[in-house]
Design a protein that fits this description.
736 residues, Jelly Rolls, 8-stranded mixed sheet, 5-stranded antiparallel sheet, elongated
């Protein structure tokens, strides 16, 4: 009946999309699908602005169950030993329409965490000055509708259960609970007849849909004969959803009988956590209550092995301690030491607990090291499988680490290749298992008694290898969910900044550092001109700017040629402050104001500029505002001087031709390069050109010294034993 279904609606706020250059540009949405959900519908709404800068755009949306989607829009390489499966994605196009609404339906979805990631195409790499251009806003919002069955029938193991499928439009949903240590499951459907007592045809779907890959099993049964399906390694301690739908006529109901049975695996005896806290083990394994969480398959939970022989059990579990180190940072420790025994009779099983809900934002690293001296057979191989939800209990060459509803990750070590590593990017939230078993060549005797020892190192890290020397590991947050991503530099790319296909060479990095730092030495001519013309305050400001710009760019380099004499943020602030104040004092100096008024404006303007830079360091008006106000003061002062003298000011045509016009031209070229030509690829030489042009324009624009000021005469000023005093009376008229 319809009353058995409950619809629920979940929504999250819209996010502004960004062009993609690294994972931090993708906008993440995190939803939780409740149990017994039979239908999931995503409502995806994309919109753009209405301005002329808004053009047609394609939005890519990725979906994944259990963890954030692993995406690679740029086609870069992943780190070695990392296993990547392509994400499920769709494209939404915004062309002439301002808004686009798309629906995505998922029947019988898996319960738990679902993630959506959306982004725009690859970034163009152009460096845009904030305020010069208005980027088009592209917004994206994801809403989730679920249809949940309130009283889903439970299929008890070993008990036949008759049910009726009312019509093809209303399929039958039941669920069965998979116990722990279940090695196999067998589903059987029988007595399938219609209401008209005719042979029926039904389709049975076992399991739930997960993205990007779905391992839902399908079974078609025709007639009254029994049909069955066997599943190896079903997910432990989870509800398995089963849907039966009729393929017959619309008016006929179908009666069926279902039976589910399990084959339970019995773990062998192994040391438990009771040994860990016993006094006899206190020296070798000190107990720290509360420091680590237990995540082992304890032997005490399993039925007692009455025979006492390893051969009677189907697996040997090893106790593992989960030790939380930091955010998305976990280390797994084996209680019996780093090495575990591996035999050919039954697999050795380790449980890696990743079901806290906060572990799927990092990278799971599993490393194996075979002790060559422990292997009694020369050609033997230790096969390993890392799988989620359920372990692989039969590790042979043909199974390829597959379980009932998932595909694991294979590993192998041998005497010829004793090391193996696996990196699982964004592992899904679940219990993960590591299965190890010794495999012998065909026809080789003594395999039953053979044994080896393998050292296992497993940990969860935010970024593998901390993104390497050319990357920065950033911790990202979406509401309460934390995940990590690598931001690469110096042309390196990839998930962990290991793709060097476009990387800058060390010589290029050194050249970039030298250009960006040594180009600031072009302020030396401006400093010399200012000192020669007695503009000592201005010369001090230029010296300050040259110093901090040099060391800021030495610290700002993405590669190995980096030198930071103090905190990066401090260097950046001082560089921005010196640049704006240099422009401020230069234009005010050109206005030829009274000294007291000029210095008051120097100090007051510097304080206001410092405040505005603290509010928004990269805002365009932090530079344009002081420039325009200073230009207004300069034009007003020049008009006043011209009106007082009754001719154009400055009156000398040589001043205009040889100083002002070249200086203004250099300044306009510098602003054009800074605002419209800089990209990530050409930054090191276009910004160096900016340094050179600005410094040269300052040297041209500085006004000449006052006529009553004599040039520097060191023999007269530094005489022996006495000083010649001179009464310098300030003239109140302007000198050109």
């Amino acid at each position: 009946a319809d009353s058995l279904y409950v619809s629920e609606y979940f929504s999250q706020s819209a996010q502004k999309l960004s062009f993609y250059s690294w994972y931090g540009n993708a906008k993440l949405f995190h939803f939780h699908v409740p149990e017994d959900t039979v239908l999931l519908r995503w409502l995806l709404q994309a919109s753009r602005g209405k301005g002329p800068e808004c053009t047609s755009m394609e939005i890519t949306v990725h979906f994944r169950h259990g963890a954030p989607p692993v995406i690679n829009p740029l086609g870069t390489r992943f780190p070695a030993n990392a296993t990547v499966r392509p994400s499920y994605n769709i494209s939404i196009t915004l062309s002439s329409a301002v808004q686009n609404t798309t629906f995505v339906n998922v029947t019988t979805p898996a319960a738990g965490d679902w993630f959506i990631a959306a982004h725009l195409p690859q970034a163009a790499g152009r460096i845009e000055v904030k305020g010069f251009s208005t980027p088009c806003p592209y917004m994206f919002q994801a809403d989730m509708f679920v249809l949940r069955l309130t009283d889903m029938p439970v299929l008890e193991p070993g008990v036949p259960m008759p049910h009726t499928v009312v019509s093809p439009a209303k399929p039958l949903h039941v669920k069965v609970f998979v116990p722990k240590h279940a090695a196999a499951m067998r589903f059987q459907l029988s007595s399938c007849v219609t209401s008209e007592q005719r042979a029926c045809t039904v389709r049975v779907l076992l399991g739930s849909i997960t993205l990007p890959q779905s391992f839902q099993r399908s079974l078609t049964c025709t007639g009254s004969t029994n049909c069955s399906l066997a599943l190896e390694s079903p997910p432990w301690e989870k509800w398995l959803q089963i849907m039966v739908e009729s393929l017959g006529t619309a008016n006929a109901s179908v009666s069926v009988e279902m039976l589910a049975s399990f084959t339970v695996c019995r773990p062998g005896s192994t040391s438990s956590f009771l040994n860990f806290i016993s006094p006899n083990q206190s020296q070798s394994a000190p107990h720290r209550p509360g420091a680590a969480g237990s995540s082992a398959l304890a032997a005490a939970e399993a039925p007692r092995n009455t025979s006492g022989q390893q051969s009677s059990s189907c697996l040997q579990s090893q106790p593992v301690v989960r030790e939380d180190l930091d955010v998305v940072s976990v280390r797994y420790r084996l209680l019996n030491g780093p090495s575990v025994p591996v035999s050919s009779l039954s697999p050795t099983l380790l449980l890696l607990n990743l079901n806290t809900g906060m572990d799927s934002g990092g990278s799971l690293v599993v490393s194996l090291l075979l002790n060559k001296t422990s292997v009694s057979l020369a050609n033997a191989t230790v096969a390993a499988c890392v799988s989620a939800a359920s372990p692989v209990l039969s590790l042979n060459a043909t199974q390829n680490c597959s379980t009932a509803f998932s595909q694991g990750y294979p590993l192998s070590v041998s005497t010829s290749s004793a090391e193996a590593m696996l990196i699982v990017l964004y592992p899904q939230t679940d219990d993960w298992f590591l299965s190890l078993q010794l495999l012998c060549p065909r026809g080789q005797g003594g395999c039953a008694s053979a044994e080896g020892r393998v050292s296992v190192f497993a940990y969860l890290t935010p970024c593998f290898n901390d993104c390497g020397p050319y990357g920065q590991c950033s911790l990202l947050r979406r509401h309460g969910f934390l995940y990590a991503g690598c931001s690469c530099k110096a042309g390196w790319g990839g998930w962990s900044c290991t793709d060097d296909s476009k990387a800058q060479t060390v010589g290029t990095q050194n050249l970039a550092t030298l250009l960006l730092t040594l180009s600031n030495l072009m302020f030396l001519p401006a400093i010399a001109v200012a000192v020669y013309r007695f503009y000592l305050v201005e010369a001090s400001v230029y010296t300050y700017t040259m110093f901090f710009s040099t060391f800021y760019h030495a610290c700002d380099q993405p590669g190995v040629a980096v030198l930071c004499i103090m905190d990066y943020d401090t260097l950046q602030y001082c560089d921005f402050l010196g640049s704006v104040v240099s422009i401020w004092v230069t234009i005010l100096c050109m206005a030829r104001l009274k000294k007291i008024l000029k210095y008051v404006l120097f100090v007051l303007g510097t304080l206001l500029i410092a405040m505005s830079l603290q509010l928004d360091r990269r805002g365009v008006w932090n530079m344009m505002g002081p420039c325009l106000f200073a230009l207004l003061i300069m034009v007003t002062a020049w008009v006043h001087h011209g009106a007082k003298r009754r001719h154009c000011y400055p009156s000398s045509w040589k001043r205009w031709v040889f100083y002002l016009l070249p200086g203004i031209t250099l300044a306009f070229i510098a602003i054009s390069v800074y605002a419209f030509m800089e990209t990530n690829e050409n930054y090191y030489y276009t910004h160096s050109i900016w340094h050179v042009l600005v410094a040269c324009s300052v040297a041209f624009l500085l006004p000449p010294r006052d006529k009553h000021k004599k040039p520097w005469a060191w023999p007269q000023k530094l005489t022996c034993r006495y000083q010649i005093c001179q009464n310098d009376r300030e003239e109140l008229y302007a000198v050109t």
